[in-house]
Write a structure and sequence with these properties.
It is a single chain. By secondary structure, this protein is an alpha+beta fold. The chain has one domain. It is 42% helix and 23% strand. The protein has four helices and seven strands. The strands form two sheets. A five-stranded antiparallel β-sheet has the order 1-2-3-4-5, sandwiched between helices. Strands 6-7 form a two-stranded parallel ribbon. A hairpin with a 7-residue loop joins strand 3 and strand 4. The longest helix has 47 residues. The protein is elongated, with a radius of gyration of 22 Å.
């Protein structure tokens, strides 16, 4: 009986020490992790709006978020910011989207859209796709297809094709799921822009 009590006390002490150590590590690393995330977000904004000097977050329109979710069930609109030049003139918007349709999990990225609806491209801030396949979504060969894309009408959206890429996005070889996740996430962001911001 005495051995059981001793073992229980020892396990309790180990648990308490481990818990305190984890709490201390969390306190030490929380601020640097937050700073790194904020820096990555700022870099993503700047990448899709190189002319912008500052960015101002605006409130999401709940009904538009719901409308986007109804059409693009795998995508969430996370934030929308105004891209402003040195004289605080509005250049367009940066819309951050999380796609839940990635092969390896969620993909979060920001798209830039000018006031006249031209897509400036996207910048990925969080991705865990397969190395050498889905991770190619971060490479220029795939992402450059989204740069300076204008649309004929408000009901025009991007499509993914493995066979005939003319007029659509050419899928990453061996990573069609990732290609579709990013492309349709971009479409979700464009839909939000056209519903609320245009």
């Amino acid at each position: 009986m005495n051995k059981i009590v001793k073992d229980a006390l020892l396990l309790t002490l180990i648990t308490l020490v481990s818990g305190c150590a984890l709490g201390l590590v969390h306190e030490i690393t929380a601020a640097p992790i937050q700073a790194a995330n904020e820096a990555a977000t700022a870099a993503a904004y700047q990448e899709v709006f190189t002319d912008a000097v500052s960015f101002n977050e605006i409130e999401l329109d709940a009904s538009a978020v719901e409308a986007v979710k109804a059409k693009y069930a795998d995508d969430d609109i996370i934030t929308v910011v105004e891209a402003l030049d040195a004289s605080d003139t509005l250049l367009g918007y940066v819309i951050t989207v999380t796609s839940h349709a990635g092969y390896g999990g969620d993909i979060t990225f920001s798209i830039g859209v000018t006031l006249d609806g031209v897509l400036n491209g996207y910048s990925i801030t969080d991705i865990s796709e397969t190395a050498g396949l889905g991770m190619k979504a971060k490479e220029d060969k795939f992402s450059s297809q989204f740069n300076n894309v204008s649309f004929d009408s408000d009901d025009s959206y991007l499509e993914v094709s493995k066979v005939d890429p003319s007029g659509s996005i050419e899928a990453i070889s061996g990573a069609t799921i990732t290609s579709k996740a990013v492309t349709y996430g971009v479409d979700a962001g464009l839909m939000y822009f056209r519903t609320v911001l245009k």
